[in-house]
Design goal:
- With about 130 residues, the protein is an alpha+beta fold.
- The protein has one domain: Ribosomal Protein S5, domain 2, CATH 3.30.230.10.
- The protein is built from four helices and four strands.
- Helix 2 packs across helix 4.
Length: about 130
Amino acid sequence: MKFTFNKKEKLKSEKLIAQLFAEGQSIVVYPLRLVYLETTFEDAVRVKAGVSVSKRNFKNAVDRNRIKRLLREAYRLQKEIVFNNSSKQYALMILYVGKDGTDFEAVKMKMSNLLEKFVKDSSKNNYS
């Protein structure tokens, strides 16, 4: 599997994002929160993901952009956890809900925990 995060895999649709927050389910591994929704895409992508950092917690755009870069990179390196264990299509939004800055190793570890928890929850929902 390629460790890429190309344009097709990015969540861009405003309608889908609004639907995601209205109807989606949530998982929290502090300081990350994952909102997900099972959906269908026209293209053959299994998962589309987006990242967000609150302007309320990080006033400076430089700080928000740095954390978003860290989130995207951690997701890119560990998205195989989701791709190898899920056959359905999902829209994901990864939110940074912490109030202080962080480093890449901490984000990477929390992202791994978050994605594993997502796989467990989504497989549990499929069987029930």
